[in-house]
Amino acid sequence: MAAHMILFLITGSAPPILVVTLLVMCYLAGYELWKEEDLPLLWKAWWILLIFLLNVVGFALFWAWLLYRRWRGPARPA
């Protein structure tokens, strides 16, 4: 196990299944953000990048935020 981790740290390459799951998480987040029409593009890009950087933790934070946003209802104009 330690040899695999050292090889990963030295080469910087991830197993293909991890790359595929990361891309799937980013795709699913993008698909859900596509439905949020009142959200600025910068926020959408920020969420995708956060998921790309934090992986599963970022994906969980995204879903919690999205659930809260949809539960709260539409934003009120200022």
Mean pLDDT: 86
Structural class: mainly alpha
Gross morphology is elongated
Residue fraction in strands = under 5%
Estimated radius of gyration: 16 Å
Provide a compact summary of the structure.
Helices cover 78% and strands 0% of the residues. It is mainly alpha-helical and 78 residues long. Helix 2 (16-35) packs antiparallel against helix 3 (41-54) and helix 3 runs antiparallel to helix 4 (56-72).
Describe this structure in words.
There is one protein chain. The protein is an all-alpha fold. The chain has one domain. It is about 80% helix and about 0% strand. The protein contains 4 helices and no strands. The protein has helices at about 1-10, 15-35, 40-55, 55-70. The longest helix has 20 residues, at about 15-35. The radius of gyration is 16 Å and the shape is elongated.
Label this structure with key terms.
mainly alpha
Topology:
Elements: H1 2-11, H2 16-35, H3 41-54, H4 56-72
